[in-house]
Structure formats: C-alpha cells, structure tokens
Automatic annotation (TrEMBL):
Localization per record: Nucleus
Keywords, sorted A to Z: DNA-binding, Nucleus, Transcription, Transcription regulation
InterPro entries membership: B3_DNA-bd, DNA-bd_pseudobarrel_sf, Plant_B3_domain
Domain TF-B3 residue range list: 25-117, 202-297
Molecular function terms from GO: DNA binding
Gene3D superfamilies: DNA-binding pseudobarrel domain
GO cellular component terms, semicolon-separated: nucleus
CDD domains assigned: B3_DNA
Record protein name field: TF-B3 domain-containing protein
Pfam families named among the record's database cross-references: B3
Length: 303
C-alpha cells in the first residue's frame, strides 16, 4: 500500500474555490462634522476588488428601511454623495463614530454604526417605511421616495428654482401619520446639521406660514444680526440658485418678522408644513440670504 501524505493544518473547505475570497466589508471612522455637503469615500482596496457597483447604492441599517445614495466615481475612487448626509443626519452620526459596511451584492450594503464608545447604537424604528418598502417590490423602487432640496440640486431650466436632487425616505402619497412625522423630523435634523462660517438661522414651516394667516415668518431671536443691527421696514433679498425675491422685515410685538414678500416666496417655492428653511446671510451689506429648503414631503417635479 502506498504511503499517504498527510498535511497538517486547517481542514480544507471543499466549497471554497482555489482563489482568494474577496473582502466584503470595510469600515470608516468619521473625522469631521456632517454637513449637507458631506461625502464618504469608499476605500480604494475595496473598489479594486471589482464589485459591480451601480451609480446608486442601497444602505440598510438595522430596524430601518433602505436608503438610496448616489455613488460618484473619479479616478481610482468611489464616493458616496447625494443621500449620504441625510443618512448620517438621521442616525446622528458624528465625529468618532465607526461605520461598518458589509457588501451583500447588487449594490446593497448592510450598515452597522458604532458610537464613540465603540458600542453599536440604538437604531430608530422605521416600521412604516419598511412596510412601504415591502409594498414597493424591490430595492430600486425606493428611489421613488421623497426628495429633499440641497445646494447641489439641479436648477430647473428657465425658473432659477433648485430641483430636489437628493433622495431620502420621507412622506409619500397616502403615507401613514408616523411616516409623515418621520419626514418632518428628518428635515429638521438636516437643518440642525447645517454648518456655515456666515450668519444663518433656520425655521420650521408651520401652517400659518403658508396659508396666508400669518403673512410672514419671524426671525429667531438667536439671529443677533437682525436684532442688533436692523431697523424697522428693513429691505432684504431671498435667493435660491439664480432666482431672487424681495421681502421686507418689520418689528412686531413678538420680534422681527419677514413680512411683505414672504407669501410670494412661499407660494413660488411650494413651501409646505414640515419643511425647514435655512436662511444664510451671504452678503450682509445687501442683506442677501441664500435659502436652503429641506423638504419633508414629496414635491411636484415642476415646482
């Protein structure tokens, strides 16, 4: 009988191919504040494995519906862009958090989030969105969920209005009350995450701001530029992309208020209850405000 050679070591897995198994996970440590313009770069080594990633990827955290995020490719790199700031804001991701991405195929990633103590976070419940996702019949249909306006939004030709360009789960037609409230909460979270070296303030939109009963919006008292330097009947300009609106501020019994001109601005931009407006003072001498509108609900493509 011939001698049989015995190789000692780890047992052979008959199901494993002779080639090395591609890494399916990577992690990122958050080292800067999340802003509406934040991006996240996927490690080059992971991209080099040759996974066939589409220009939109799908992020799924525990107890959550799927988020659609744009994947932008440059030379040797792939970057998560539109949709990533909304995902990060919703889960309160901040400096020191560790994000683990596990690739599950078909441009889908399971995401685990660890806080500053290296402990997995308690994820917010999103049952209503999971139900909506199940009814939609697949990952790719989730891109039909609500849109949010951002500075990178595409301008609609001939209007000067910024078209929503970033996808977030939010309120859809016929959505449950919990889904509506979740959309409002996400819009507010994004506004709170806004950062700028210029003076700014933000306000939530309530029914009285858009139904004509209040005829304006009060400036928050935290915006000291107005309360310390402005006078009654002060003229200011609101701007989105290349379009501008003239408005007038005046003193009321409860503070400074954007009055005359507000109703036209609200009507032209289709403001709705639950939206959040960020007013960034980009030119103090001209009192020019760039307005960023974070949408809580789905908007008509033609607004």
């Amino acid at each position: 009988m011939k001698n049989r050679r015995i190789v000692r070591g780890a047992p052979m897995d008959p199901l494993r191919s002779s080639s090395a198994v591609k890494p399916r996970c990577f992690f990122k440590i958050i080292i800067s504040h999340i802003t509406p313009h934040s991006t996240l770069t996927i490690p080059r080594r992971f991209i080099a494995q040759g996974y066939d990633l589409a220009d939109k990827v799908f992020l799924k955290a525990p107890e959550s519906s799927v988020w659609v995020v744009d994947l932008e490719r440059t030379t040797g790199e792939a970057v998560l862009r539109n949709g990533w700031p909304e995902f990060a804001a919703y889960y309160s991701i901040s400096i020191g958090h560790v994000i683990l991405f596990k690739y599950e195929g078909n441009s889908q990633f399971h995401v685990t989030i660890l806080d500053n103590s290296c402990t997995e976070i308690e994820y917010p419940m999103s049952a209503s969105h999971n139900e909506q996702a199940n009814r939609s019949g697949g990952f790719r249909k989730r891109k039909e969920q609500a849109l949010i306006t951002s500075k990178e939004g595409r301008k609609i030709k001939g209007t000067g209005i910024v078209k929503p360009d970033t996808v977030i789960p939010s309120q859809a037609k016929g959505a449950s009350e919990s889904a509506i409230e979740e959309g409002k909460a996400r819009a507010l979270a994004l506004a709170k995450a806004f950062k700028s070296n210029k003076p700014f303030f933000f306000r939530r939109v309530y029914p009285s701001h858009v139904d004509g009963t209040q005829h304006g919006m009060h400036v928050t008292t935290a915006f000291k530029e107005a309360y310390e330097n402005w006078k009654d009947n002060e003229q200011l300009t609101l701007q989105i992309a290349e379009r501008t609106w003239q408005a007038e501020c005046r003193w009321t019994s409860i503070g400074y208020k954007i009055g005359k001109g507000w109703c036209k601005f609200a009507r032209d931009t289709s403001l709705a209850t639950g939206d959040v407006c960020v007013f960034e003072l980009v030119n103090s001498s001209q009192k020019l405000f760039e307005v960023i509108i974070y949408r809580a609900t789905v908007k008509n493509e033609n607004w």
